[in-house]
Fold TBCC domain-containing protein 1.
Amino acid sequence: MTEPTEPATSSSTPSPTGPTAPSATDPTTLVHPRRELFEHGLLPIPKLIFSDPTQTLIPLKQNLLEQSSNHRVDSASIAESLQISIDHARLVLETLASVLPSDSEPLVTAKPGENDAVGVDVFDLVLFLYVQSYKKLLPRTHKDSAAVSDVWPSTSAFDGYLSALSPLQLVRSNSRRFMPSQADEEAHQLSYLQKHLANILSLLAEPVEGEGEGEEYLVLTMDRFEHLGLLVQFGDKGSGGNSLSQMSPFFANSDPDMPAVPVPAAHVHDWLLQNIASALEHISERTSSKENGPASASDQDVAMTDASAVKVSTGTRGATFIEGISKSSYVKHASDIKGSSIKVLNCQESAIYVLAPLRYATVYGCSDATIVLGAVGKAVRVEHCERVHVIVATKRVCIANCRECVFFLGVNQQPLVIGDNHKLQVAPYNTFYSQLEAHMNEVGILPTVNRWDEPLALGMVDHHDSLSHPAGVSDAQAESATQVDPDQFTNFVIPNWLGGESTGSTENNPFTLPDSYMASQLRNQKNLGEIRQLLREAPLEESRKKELSSALHVYFKDWLYASGNIRQLYCLQGE
């Protein structure tokens, strides 16, 4: 990038020497990558991953801008420009909408089916496409396999012949203690942005003539600068309602009634590099102090000393962690959640309830568990799980590298299935709690739209993850999910003892069941009523009735084991 000798600047523009970065000790002014983009915004679609993103995306941007008078394009334009299917183009729109930072963005507020009418901003789109080149951080080298085998439950019965490593075996062989910490991942994401910053700014900047003959340089308007909010944020809780431009020295004092003077892209580049360097230095110092000092139980970045220990913590970036729950039930209500996202990690043989409104949720490395998530307004990701039942009302859900899992979904968009999955099942949503509808309204989930039965399977190879799918492995479509037989469908009853916040008005499942599932449910209720009536009328002595009751309990317990609902025993024991 070149800049004129005397660049035109507004009163708020820094001197030519460039702005100084904030102190690395002030967390409110540190720059952070937007984890939502890197955790929920990557799609394993080969045609979205470019060997030279800048060379591909600059002409793509110009082509899309020429097609629209308002800088917004629909899925048909995206499909034609990228040479992808219309289904994949719609998936791009939905995924981008789930990670955009502004809740007032038209694509975010659009109702199901309205995305094409609203369209996506071209500059948001090209940044989203550029980041598809990101590679996830590899786990640390595994050090103590014996300790891991002592902690984790036995492997799945079919692990030996389906693949060398099942999804959960892969997680176990790289125990959570040696997986990247939140600090490591953030440093990796910042380093990626640091390396690619010049190219990213070139996608947003526009050329203007310099003072010299034939001289040209790049500038950023305040509007274009705002698009960087997709990639970065300032402070632990983002901009606190302020726009990204108001957190910068370039536009912070701009008159809202007057258009701000564009800023040389070189100044923005230098300023952001200084901020990223300060943030990386802060992460390094924080990590070093943890390694040299005593571990803190409330710090999500500190490695667990024992993966079987219960670990519940709140991160400084607004995420609540539930980790290592084993052979028990655990509940969190809205008042217990700090921030807007939750991560359920490495839990086994348990029932986990998160009865709260959320923006994002991640379930990772769990086995033989039932996990109930309240209402998740942006996105849910379930990854590397085995024999887990997930019950959730959400706008979108992504399932990656799971085995023998069942998903009971109230979902407004098609469930996305990626990676190496086996024996997945989907079913309609099957529970409720008193505040469910209030929570759904709060985060924007529509009970009238449920696409649980329309899973969209992408490729098995995740080009963002070089660990589980090394280079050279050929791709194939991921195994999709089958539907639970209506005769096997049952309602999931959230135990009464969990009703700590019973002020809501929800008394039934807010999602309408399909006819076949409703008919099966009515049959089951009728059969149960008949059995109860027979028991009441049976001419048996009191001792014989007790024997019969005990026998029924034994058969019920056998059914729980056979049907995979044994996790509910932990709940029943608490009633």
The two ends are 67 Å apart (CA to CA).
